[in-house]
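<goal> How does this chain fold?
<body> The protein record starts here
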Amino acid sequence: MADREEFDVVVMGGGPGGEDVAGRLAEAGLRVAVVEGKLFGGECPYWGCIPSKMMVRAAELITEARRVPGMAGDATVSPDWSPVAKRVRAEATADWNDQAAVDRLLGKGGHFIRGWGHVTGPDEITVRATGDGVRVLRARRGIVLATGSQPTIPPIEGLAGTPYWTNRGAIETERVPESLVVLGGGAIGSELAQVFARFGAAVTVVESSPRILAAEEPEAGELLAEAFRADGIDLRTGVRAVRAGHDGERFTVHLNDGTSVEGERMLVATGRHSDLPALGVGAAGIDESARTIATDARMRAADRVWALGDVTGRGAFTHMSMYQADIVVKDILGEPVHDAEYHAVPRVTFTDPEIGAVGLTEAQARRQGLDVRTAVSDLGSRGWIHRARGFFKLVAADGVLVGATSAGPYGGELLGMLTVAVHSRLPVARLNEMIFAFPTFHRGIYPALAKLTS
């Protein structure tokens, strides 16, 4: 058996949170190793938030130009995917090369091991290293589990043998397909469906729930469905795929209502999951049969084991992993740190209209048995000026804002004030006493606050 290599901390997973933990601990003087089998930096910079938002921005520009007639003259647009693909490849991903990120870690004094880690003891990681056989690492002070998640592929008959896309294939594509079937109407599926539709693809979205963005307020799903129809997207809700096939040129997807849909390409965007048994976390005293890793308020999952990011089940967001990473670093270093709180988690679906939300939805608040009051308002004067559709929805309980949705232009940016309010547990009456600048989008919140305090 290989000799054990000694480190203070071993970080399994090199996504944004894992990279942050490793770099900061190394700068603090600890001997730290990161184990990552894929690209160092994780999903976000190479296939997730960064390149996908480049695509969203490009699609947004096309649609904004098409809104010129009737408001500012005339304009014609000829969509071209090549500059989008070039920008993703050259500016965002360096042609899917992580050397810059690895060098960044090494420059801070950290160690990088390319390979697949498996917990084989309370303080031990065995790595199937790329090109180096097996390496055994000992973590004297602790292990940090930051291994992220992977796409969940539904057990659809015939799907496994087809060249379907996950989000990675969609991000890497050099051309827009003539037609696209998207399985899943959550954030990833909705964003990419709209992007490709605006670049000329005939898009069909299949969502098993009665509405898209099923985890958000019903009003958000209804608003986005209207936008999808305006973009020419064929939206099939309340149905699911039962069989899929590929004849070498096109996909055919059979649905449980007896109909079928076809497309040159198919994107599977039906959620993500973490594979705990593959990590061997049972060797550290963690329940491998669970869907996610349970942690305490300091992100401790077991004795000298911390977990962060997707594997904790608190939201598959880069901002969540970075929030948790800060707690992990301070706890390992023995620095003062607040307990983790999850009552004001912000989330944004970068569609047009943009859907921002924070805290509890109305349904979630009611399931918790809270005494709920809600109010909805439109975007006010600024929405009329822009000819934009959207709304604000506020969810209050016991006079305090516990959740909110901002849908429309800049919905994610407008979420900032609402996130502060939910996080700080500010009374609705106090919020209603604020001065809201006119005419701004955020002033549209004011009528909803007035309804809650009347």
Q: What stands out?
A: The chain has 15 helices and 21 strands. The chain has a mean pLDDT of 96.
